[in-house]
């Protein structure tokens, strides 16, 4: 998303930002009406992914599989019109297609709920221009780390490695 567009137009929201807010309002209304089961969220996310242009769709489908395989405790849902994955109702990670905000690459973002802490500096957004095997393995490690429990996380940080990495259960 180009925040310069918002600033350049007098601090108002860009068309893409307004569309994302409308998506979120619609999602909240739908969530209040429907069953909040994992299956319902997965269905909504898969439907959204199916509507993406081919390059974004290919990446989003693969990411969805990586995330659900490596963090089965996460629940898929739509969040501001984007596929997102939650734990205890809070977003842990999300996919932003390049098309949504007219950027040159898709991104995988992690919220502050993700346990990615690594000293005093760590990444929370990752550009994904293509998703090969090496990138898939790296994302799988990030997702597993993002959902570590407190005790396991403390051990991993103290050990200074991902050797203690296990999905939360």
Walk me through this protein's architecture.
The chain is α+β, with helices and mostly antiparallel strands and 169 residues long. It has one domain: Aspartate Aminotransferase, domain 1. The chain has a 5-stranded antiparallel sheet with strand order 1-2-3-4-5. A hairpin with a 2-residue loop joins strand 2 and strand 3. Helix 4 packs across helix 5. The longest helix is centred in the first third of the chain and has 19 residues. The termini are far apart. The C terminus is likely disordered.
The beta-strand count equals 5
The domain tally reads 1
Query: What is the correct CATH architecture?
Result: Alpha-Beta Complex
> Strands across the major sheet, in which order?
1-2-3-4-5
The CATH C-level class name: Alpha Beta
Helix and strand string, N-terminal first? HHHHEEEEEHH
Q: Ranges with pLDDT <50 over ≥5 residues?
A: 161-169
Roughly what is the average pLDDT, rounded to an integer? 85
Could you say which overall geometry the principal axes of the C-alpha atoms support? globular
Question: Rg from C-alpha positions?
Answer: 17 Å
